[in-house]
Write a sequence for this structure.
């Protein structure tokens, strides 16, 4: 029987993916992504003739050469090179594999030796002003069932800060209209973490109007695809939501391409501008680490300064 330390790196990857599911509790799509990213690492090892490389034989120079490969030579199926942000996804997967080795007491390069590529655009968070949000929300033609659904979707995203994956996972049975002040809903988010999201009365109003048009179907999904009759494909998928919101942003004349994540950014930015503290926004968003939430602080600092200058009485006192 082969000892763990004698197994090549590529032979550890299936066990690592099982570990992600059982011990780390990662969701299916995260596991699939890790599998896809590490498949590229396997191909790189094969290309360099290193398929038998053991965990302790992986060096910092190997990692550097892999980074150069991702940056300069690897191409997607569409024959495009990877952005720095995309390169980091592949490096994070490899770093997680090294963390797995550490957890299993398998001698290997420390995960800290893998530095992520610096993305000059990583701090450029796109978000909408409240006026732009309002313009976007009013674009769908609510006289149609598709338009009504899409209005309900966008109202929900801005009210709750849900990720698009969390949105499309919602079921009708989770929604009720008993409380005139809105709805508190407990969801399972990224990495299996549990958090509470809040539907405003306005968002709930549009969800209710949308559901009133669905008296004759038994589909459990909250948001459905009207373009298919296949019962197994009735739940609206992430790509459709993204495509629809981009379409509405163009029709609204908004200068940036709006995605569900832009609405999530807009939700977080609005909370911070209104004075909500960073830790609370972290809880609203379901970030495990407050450092993730800090990407918003440079956006709001300028806005808060403008609000302070406009409204704080001390700025209006006689300077003499």
């Amino acid at each position: 029987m082969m000892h763990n330390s004698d197994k090549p790196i590529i032979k550890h990857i299936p066990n690592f993916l099982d570990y992600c599911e059982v011990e780390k509790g990662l969701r299916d799509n995260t596991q699939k992504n890790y599998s896809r990213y590490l498949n590229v690492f396997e191909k790189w090892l094969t290309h360099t003739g290193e398929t038998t490389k053991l965990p302790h034989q992986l060096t910092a120079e190997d990692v550097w050469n892999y980074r150069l490969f991702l940056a300069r030579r690897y191409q997607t199926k569409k024959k495009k090179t990877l952005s720095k942000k995309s390169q980091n996804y592949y490096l994070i997967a490899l770093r997680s594999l090294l963390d797995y080795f550490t957890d299993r007491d398998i001698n290997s390069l420390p995960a800290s030796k893998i530095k992520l590529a610096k993305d000059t655009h990583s701090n450029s968070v796109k978000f909408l002003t409240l006026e732009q949000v309002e313009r976007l929300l009013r674009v769908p033609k609510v006289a149609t069932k598709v338009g009504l659904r899409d209005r309900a979707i966008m109202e929900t995203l801005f009210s709750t800060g849900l990720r698009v994956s969390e949105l499309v996972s919602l079921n009708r049975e989770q929604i009720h209209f008993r409380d005139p002040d809105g709805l508190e809903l407990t969801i399972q988010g990224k990495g299996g973490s549990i958090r509470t999201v809040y539907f405003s009365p306005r968002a709930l109003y549009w969800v209710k109007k949308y559901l009133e048009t669905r008296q004759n179907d038994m589909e459990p999904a909250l948001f459905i695809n009207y373009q298919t009759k296949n019962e197994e494909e009735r739940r609206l998928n992430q790509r459709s939501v993204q495509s629809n919101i981009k379409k509405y942003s163009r029709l609204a004349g908004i200068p940036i391409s709006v995605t569900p994540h832009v609405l999530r950014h807009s939700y977080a930015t609005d909370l911070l501008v209104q004075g909500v503290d960073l830790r609370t926004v972290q809880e609203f968003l379901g970030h495990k680490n407050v450092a993730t939430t800090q990407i918003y602080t440079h956006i709001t600092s300028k806005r808060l300064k403008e609000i302070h200058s406009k409204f704080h009485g001390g700025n209006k006192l006689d300077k003499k």
User: Anything to note?
Assistant: The chain has 13 helices and two strands. The longest strand covers residues 183-188.
